[in-house]
């Protein structure tokens, strides 16, 4: 199986590049640029608040907004410790665990390496953002792509941090934790075996990008933790805002009508997981807040999110090429939904 590598260096001589930069930076005669800074935005914001303070006071005292803020704060506060812990562990793995350690631990036959790589996700915590470059490193070092992809899907979904967060979000419901573990592991193993059977090497176009290889391990740790926290924290806020808005704005009758249709509710929350792209360490708290939907539908939300979402599709396209992402992401979405529905029907 042949893997194609692309060089992303920019063509052009240093002299041409410097001349182009100087030409672009040179201001036109008679014109003076004025950039809007943070201080300008702060002054405008304060003026708006002072002028419309009566309106804002009435708005903040509205019962619907108070309910919305309560839901949003509770989701964020509950999920934040697990998010921080997961980001720290993910950065530690990226900095201190060499990719060669994975290749030595896997069987040589791809069909056997797939379930082993999937099970390895239980002991190697990390968010989905970190699993894509790790999987890319495994493929680049000779690990069977099917095993690397099984690890890519399993690691952010069945690691101890995620399962513990799920247990906290759904107290006294151990069947939810087991259902998430089983459906996510089944999704990763099935996708790995599908790649063994149908995958083609020409679909992989590994893009070599300069990363943090030249820095010290502690520098890699710091930068990885900073990058993952900023990205995952932003998605957590978006997820909390959306969940709170759904609970307050959307009429209860509409949610009840959708929730009564098992397949429709599962597909709706699966699509919501793709769009929201919440970090796997925090998505259980958002799922727990969507109490209008069945447990099977909320299970689909938790299984689909770490496997396929908008940021993962972009990361996969940037790491393995668009041809891979356009085939892998839809197949993963279908597999994850089917696994969620079957496991939810059996256990929940």
Automatic annotation (TrEMBL):
It comes from the Bacteria. It is a multi-pass membrane protein. Pfam families: ArsP_1. The keyword Transmembrane helix applies. One of its GO terms (cellular component) is plasma membrane. It is found in: Cell membrane. The lineage of its organism: Bacteria, Bacillati, Actinomycetota, Actinomycetes, Kitasatosporales. This is Permease.
């Amino acid at each position: 199986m042949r893997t194609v590598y692309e060089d992303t260096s920019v063509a052009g001589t240093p002299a041409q590049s410097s001349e182009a930069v100087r030409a672009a930076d040179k201001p036109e005669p008679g014109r003076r640029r004025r950039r809007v800074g943070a201080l300008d935005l702060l002054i405008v914001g304060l003026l708006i608040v002072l002028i419309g303070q009566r309106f804002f006071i009435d708005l903040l005292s509205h019962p619907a907004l108070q309910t919305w803020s309560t839901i949003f704060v509770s989701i964020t506060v509950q999920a934040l410790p697990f998010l921080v812990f997961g980001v720290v562990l993910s950065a530690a793995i990226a900095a201190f665990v060499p990719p060669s350690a994975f290749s030595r631990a896997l069987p040589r036959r791809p069909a056997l390496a797939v379930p082993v790589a999937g099970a390895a996700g239980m002991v190697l915590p990390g968010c989905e953002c970190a699993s894509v470059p790790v999987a890319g490193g495994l493929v680049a070092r000779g690990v069977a792509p099917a095993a690397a992809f099984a690890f890519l899907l399993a690691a952010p979904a069945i690691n101890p941090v995620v399962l513990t967060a799920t247990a906290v979000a759904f107290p006294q419901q151990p069947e939810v934790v087991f259902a998430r573990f089983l459906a996510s592991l089944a999704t990763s193993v099935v996708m790995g075996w599908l790649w063994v059977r149908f995958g083609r090497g020409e679909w992989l176009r590994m893009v070599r990008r300069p990363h943090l290889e030249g820095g010290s391990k502690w520098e890699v740790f710091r930068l990885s933790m900073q990058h993952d926290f900023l990205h995952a924290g932003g998605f957590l806020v978006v997820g909390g805002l959306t969940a709170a808005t759904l609970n307050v704005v959307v009429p209860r009758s509409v949610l009840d009508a959708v929730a009564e249709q098992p397949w429709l509710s599962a597909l709706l929350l699966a699509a919501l997981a793709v769009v929201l792209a919440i970090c796997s360490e925090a998505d259980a708290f958002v799922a727990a807040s969507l109490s209008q939907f069945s447990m099977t539908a909320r299970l689909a939300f938790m299984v689909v999110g770490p496997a396929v979402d908008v940021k993962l599709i972009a990361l996969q396209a940037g790491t393995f090429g668009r041809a891979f992402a356009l085939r892998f992401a839809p197949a993963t979405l279908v597999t994850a939904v089917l696994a969620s529905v079957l496991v939810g029907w059996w256990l929940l």
